């Protein structure tokens, strides 16, 4: 076999004897390994000590065929120090089922597939791939801070299984990158992660975006520098407003016995169809308190459309006055929440760019797809590694094997 084909198959350091069809499909490349490098002792020479049973490992895909390597291992012994070694191709470990090239192909397939589906395609057991992920993929992007410039971090929780939540951490600037998925959403886990970050890196964090969860905000304030500004995510603020509005709608339905449509209340008012707009008008006439809360929600949405910080602060002050004077008690409770988060809401105008959790929500969408494809996870650390693998660039996969 000529050298270009050997380079294509990444078979450097071996001699190819024959290529033939395998009984279970694919191709088998019969190889002979070269004599080992000189013994580290430097005083002896290798003596052929014995021959072992033939070995076969999966190597890579060529076309639609899976290429397997087959060789007869030789045992060599140093004549001076009596050290014994067994020759094998490349960096293959004893009893390894996949070569490093096959492992890289398996990790690429696992980025979008499940363990069982990828194992059936590669012709190995799912346990081989699970052990590969556990051994190779880290629980955090290595040295994610090795980029110049100020850092912008985002944090949010997502569901690992049911109501069991995990924390997702991502970097939005200078580059967009998933940092890690923490084990759970406890405060001590959030603080323990900050303790692993070098102090010089914590000093570079200038912006932290989060939802209306006080533990995230306090974590940024406790571990970040004096220059760090916490920014509340607009999506979660409006989502909280819609949740409050929907809870009051259900209470009104129970009290009055009249069906109140949900969509005209939670949908953006400028996007309502004529039928939904007519339904909203009827709701405001029949349920004035619910209509007042809806007006507060729409006014809060207009808060992010203000051109300057002074306009935004004036708009938010008027909103708080209207919320305190609302006919429904929920308005005053809502005003208390917005008043506590007022500095983080106004922090949007303190940055040259309006930072949100949009990138992180996109990561969560992809994580949900990976969980559905994999039919769920039971091992929490394996889930974290699998999610991180799904967001690694294809060019970064081979580096994981070194």
UniProtKB/TrEMBL annotation:
Residues 153-386 form the Transposase IS204/IS1001/IS1096/IS1165 DDE domain. It comes from the Bacteria. InterPro entries: Transpos_ISL3 (IPR047951), Transposase_DDE (IPR002560). This is ISL3 family transposase.
């Amino acid at each position: 076999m000529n050298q270009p084909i050997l380079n294509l198959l990444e078979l450097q350091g071996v001699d190819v004897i024959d290529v033939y069809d395998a009984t279970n499909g694919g191709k088998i490349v019969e190889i002979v390994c070269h004599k080992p490098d000189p013994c580290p002792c430097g005083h002896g020479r290798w003596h052929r000590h014995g021959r072992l049973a033939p070995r076969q490992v999966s190597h890579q895909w060529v076309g639609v065929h899976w290429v397997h390597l087959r060789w007869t291992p030789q045992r060599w012994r140093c004549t001076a120090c009596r050290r014994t070694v067994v020759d094998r191709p490349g960096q293959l470990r004893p009893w390894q089922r996949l070569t490093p090239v096959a492992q890289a192909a398996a990790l690429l397939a696992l980025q979008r597939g499940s363990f069982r589906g990828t194992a059936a395609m590669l012709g190995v057991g799912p346990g081989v791939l699970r052990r590969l992920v556990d051994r190779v993929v880290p629980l955090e992007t290595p040295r994610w801070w090795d980029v110049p410039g100020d850092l912008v971090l985002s944090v949010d929780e997502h569901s690992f299984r049911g109501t069991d939540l995990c924390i997702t951490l991502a970097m939005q600037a200078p580059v967009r990158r998933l940092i890690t998925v923490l084990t759970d959403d406890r405060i001590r886990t959030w603080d323990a992660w900050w303790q692993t970050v070098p102090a010089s890196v914590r000093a570079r964090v200038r912006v932290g975006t989060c939802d209306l969860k006080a533990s995230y905000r306090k974590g940024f304030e406790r571990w970040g520098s004096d220059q760090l500004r916490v920014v509340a995510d607009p999506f979660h603020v409006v989502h909280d407003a819609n949740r409050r509005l929907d809870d009051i709608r259900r209470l009104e339905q129970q009290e009055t016995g009249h069906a109140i449509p949900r969509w005209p209340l939670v949908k953006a008012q400028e996007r309502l169809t004529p039928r939904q707009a007519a339904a909203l008008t009827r709701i405001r006439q029949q349920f004035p308190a619910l209509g007042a809360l809806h007006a507060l929600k729409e006014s809060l949405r207009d808060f992010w459309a203000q051109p300057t910080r002074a306009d935004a602060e004036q708009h938010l002050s008027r909103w708080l006055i209207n919320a305190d004077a609302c006919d429904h008690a929920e308005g005053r409770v809502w005003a208390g929440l917005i008043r506590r988060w007022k500095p983080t809401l106004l922090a949007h105008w303190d940055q040259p760019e309006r930072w949100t959790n949009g990138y992180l929500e996109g990561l969560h969408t992809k994580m949900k797809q990976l969980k559905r494809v994999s039919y769920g996870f039971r091992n929490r650390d394996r889930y974290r590694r699998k999610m991180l693998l799904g967001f690694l660039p294809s060019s970064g996969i081979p580096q994981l094997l070194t």
